[in-house]
Specification:
Blueprint lengths: L2 H37 L7 E5 L3 H16 L5 E5 L13 H11 L1
Parallel strand pairs: 1-2
Helix pairs in contact: 2-3
Keywords: Signal
Protein name: Glucose N-acetyltransferase 1
């Protein structure tokens, strides 16, 4: 190998090592900053909100909220539904079942 090739290989290896080193240092600072910031958050001030207008959105919102719960999401969950979905004649409907499920879980 010529001297020029040696220099190119040396610079490439040095650059690669420098990039890996800087990435590892940045990652450590970011993760410690995130963990410290996460402790300072008042999660009661935040909520995921869904506005349900029909049966399909109700089912989708219920699945979305279930996934948030499964992943350990800290903010509250709020589901807004139109008054028509809360009518007394809707008591035995599938929408009423899903609304009760959302309320209880």
């Amino acid at each position: 190998m010529s001297s020029k090739r040696h220099r190119v290989v040396f610079i490439a290896v040095l650059t690669t090592l420098l990039i890996f080193y800087l990435q590892s240092q940045t990652g450590q600072r970011t993760s410690s900053w995130l963990s410290r910031a996460e402790k300072d958050v008042d999660w009661s001030r935040f909520a995921y909100t869904q506005y349900v207008t029909n049966s399909e959105y109700l089912c989708n919102s219920l699945m979305f909220f279930e996934a948030l719960k499964r992943y350990g999401s800290r903010p509250d969950r709020v589901m807004m539904v139109p008054e028509s979905m809360l009518e007394p004649e809707m008591v035995n409907s599938s929408d009423a079942y899903l609304l009760n499920k959302a309320r209880d879980e």
